[in-house]
Amino acid sequence: MPLRPQLLEPLNETDSAIEWDDSPCPLCGQHDEELRFEAADPTPCYRKQGLRFLVVRCRQCGLSYTNPRPAPDSIGQFYPIDYKPHRRPRKLAQAHPRGRFWERLLGRPCQERRGLLPWDGVGRLLDFGCGGGSFLKRMADQGWDVTGLDAAVGAVQNVQEQLGLKAVVGTLPHQELRAGSFEVVTMWHSIEHVHEPLEILREAYRLLVPGGKVIIACPNIESWAFRRFGVNWFGLDLPRHLTHFSPESLTAILQTAGLRMESLRTIRHSDWLRSSARLAMRSPRAHFRDQLLTWKPLAKLAAWFIYVMGRSDCIIAVGERPKM
Ligand SMILES: [Zn+2]
Q1: What is the pLDDT of residue 281?
Q2: Could you tell me which residues come within 8 angstroms of residue 218 by beta carbon, excluding any fewer than 6 positions away?
Q3: 283-319 burial string, b = 16+ CB within 10 Å, else e?
Q4: Distance in Å, CA 25 to ligand 1 centroid
Q5: 261, 234, 267, 239: which is closest to 248 by C-alpha?
Q6: Which of 62, 103, 118, 193 is most buried, most CB within 10 Å of its CB?
Q7: Residue environment code for 214-228, b if the CB has 16+ CB neighbours within 10 A, otherwise e
Q8: pLDDT of residue 96
Q9: Residues 136-172: tens digit of each pLDDT
């Protein structure tokens, strides 16, 4: 029997317009999945309360993904109007271009990483899923020739009108973006949102010059935080996160797209620990340890220990389009 989203309460008329997509594995294309867990949408979006979503694991390649999932024309209904990454940046701090010594040694908080590219030089940069444009603005200020791409019309308008930067609406492939026209393509917490991540990465490969790089950040489902918090882990964000990567599956999909792995690491993210702990505190089975992790200094300390163990909940990977 095919898996279906679980309805705990009747949906209203608007909800009945949602189309569901029963997807094969986004990496290997097989339809051989097993149920991993089910969880609710964590956002207090009242219209969607009562829906629970299933995360399955492909028996062939091990990738975890949300399935069934809202179809491309329906997924927009699950994005709150004030979805955080789409907001206009309030503060555009100038980052140190190479990072401070201790930050490089100990791992940097996730927001800070955006000012750090792992090699010298400037060029043409495409930010896939640019949201409110804070990263684009920072890189433009450092001399990069930047272009933003986002499916949210309002977000792209803000980037164009408020920040005065190039940005286009849509996804990849995009008719306004030419092959071999970028040195860098960045995907900060966007690859987990797309229905066809492999196709997106293949197109990113085509847009890059030989030797150009894709930089990806996404949640790590093999993290300590997921093992600890389970369905309350902040990095799940169902149903907006459609693919749930681990270091292994992210490496596999980058290589399948033709990219050579240059580096992969996890970075600490104490705000996510605190958010996960707050979500866990909603549960009747909440534990006192969860409450402790809502306390900022303790969350920072825990995030540091988890980082040292190599089990942080955010992955950053760099893949290169081979020169030959
Ligand atoms: Zn698979």
Answers
A1: 83
A2: 187, 189, 191, 192, 245, 250, 314, 315
A3: eeeeeeebeebbeeebbeebbeebbeeebbbbbbbbb
A4: 5
A5: 261
A6: 193
A7: bbbbbbbbbbbbbeb
A8: 40
A9: 998 888 888 999 999 989 889 999 999 999 999 999 9
- Return the H-helix or E-strand segment holding 69: strand 69-70
CA 258 vs CA 89, 123, 210, 249, 265: distances in Å: 34, 22, 12, 14, 20
Task: Give dist(CA 213, CA 208) in Å, integer.
Answer: 7
CB of 5 closer than 8 Å to CB of 54: yes
Structure-token pair, residue 233: 């882990």
Which residues are close to ligand 1, an ion, with C-beta < 5 A? 25, 27-28, 58, 60-61, 63
Question: 270: part of which helix (H) or strand (E)?
Answer: helix 270-281
Q: Is the pLDDT of residue 97 over 60?
A: no
- Helices 247-256 and 197-207, interaxial angle, to 10°? 50
**Nearest CA to 190 among 220, 152, 217, 221?**
217
- The fold of 93-320 is Rossmann fold (3.40.50)
31 Cα to the center of ligand 1, angstroms: 8
ω into 118 cis (within 30 of 0): no
d(C-alpha 274, C-alpha 276), whole Å? 5
Q: Where are the beta strands (DSSP E) in 182-283?
A: 182-188, 208-219, 243-244, 260-267
Domain extent listing, the chain: 6-78, 93-320
One-letter amino acid at 258 equals G
Residue 7 three-state SS: strand
